Amino acid sequence: MEFGILMGDQPISTPPEEHLDLMLRKVEAAQKAGFTYLTIGQHYLYDGFRWFQPVPMLARLAAELDDHVKIGTTVLVGPLHHPVQLAEDLATLDVITRGKLVVGIGTGYLPHEYEVFGKPYKQRYSLLEELIEVMTKVWTQDRVTHHGKFFDIEDRPTHLHPVQKPRPPIWLGAMKEMGVRRAARHGDVWTITPQQTIEQVEHLVGAYLDERAKYDLPLTKFPLRRELHLGADPEDALHKFAEVARVKYVSYAGQGMQLLEQERVEQDFLENVKDHVLLGTGDQVQDQIRDIASRLPVGPLLVRPHWPGMDAEQTEAYLEQVGREVVAPLKDLESISFDELEAKQAG
């Protein structure tokens, strides 16, 4: 089992130079603790929190990478971009990292971002599908012709291809069946979001397998995003998690993130999050991950080591503890295979 981190936002009251220093220290501490995926999300004109834009930030962080560590976007808001520019930016980043880029991409959930960029929010899923189609052509063909609903290109040469062939892996997040089927058709894997329970995911796996089989596409284990917090016991870990994460969860819910009810998050945070957060002692969290791995073909597992307002020392301490108590003990864990899963479902 490999593990990774999400490197997110910070309150805008934090000076940007301090924010950058925090990012660099997270990268150093995460690699030291045994994490092998370093990822960052994306937002524009965000309220109250600063998001560094992923392509230039990952290009800077690439200089800090150990040889076996990958970097990626989780998630990049694809429909806000023109596919040619995004394809060339990401191809450049794949070259800079010598082929260690993962492209996590999605639609986002904030209508105002679409309004600012003049993009139709109601057509975001169609935009995403066509964007991936055009980017793949730019990455894999010597000349590109594309006549679609949103983009029109007539026989233009390409000059910049990624190191990875045929393209960097594309991770698509999804929370409902239609999105899972879209991820199966247009991505290389379905990224399981942190708000989904394992029972919800088990219910959706069949749709994913069905769609991959329909198009004769190979199967790759699912990246699993999960919040994780350690404590003396699950209750202690839950309360410690609430101390650092409640403000951000309220922000998510207030801005319309699916699967989070604003009233429940504000008034009953503990009850709302406990069924999708890994909580407890190191041994207890290990057992929870082993249980997930016995039920779903997952890997890597991505956690968030830093919540807005935490300082660098708190983040480094979190990474060291999780690395020692969870990552290192589970380095040889192998999740169930797709063949085993299908046999289990058939039985």
3D structure, described in words:
There is one protein chain. This protein is of the alpha/beta class and 347 residues long. Helices cover 46% and strands 19% of the residues. The protein is built from 13 helices and 14 strands. It is globular.
Keywords for this structure?
alpha/beta; eight-stranded parallel β-sheet; two-stranded antiparallel ribbon; 46% helix
Summarize this, please?
By secondary structure, the protein is an alpha/beta fold. The chain has helices at 16-32, 54-61, 83-96, 111-117, 124-140, 177-186, 198-214, 234-254, 262-267, 269-273, 282-295, 312-327, 338-346; strands at 3-7, 10-11, 37-40, 49-50, 70-77, 101-106, 143-147, 152-157, 170-174, 189-192, 222-225, 227-230, 277-280, 298-303.
Query: Helicity range of the residues?
Result: 40-55%
Instruction: Label the structural class.
Output: alpha/beta
- Globally, the shape reads globular
In order across it, which strands form the biggest sheet?
10-9-6-5-3-1-14-11
How many strands appear in the DSSP assignment?
14
Q: How far do the termini sit from each other?
A: 26 Å
- What is the N-to-C succession of helices and strands? EEHEEHEHEHHEEEHEHEEHHHEHEHH
Beta content: 15-25%
Low-confidence runs of at least 5 consecutive residues: none
Work out the helix count: 13
Mean of all residue-level pLDDT scores: 93
Main sheet record: 8 strands, parallel
Radius of gyration: 20 Å
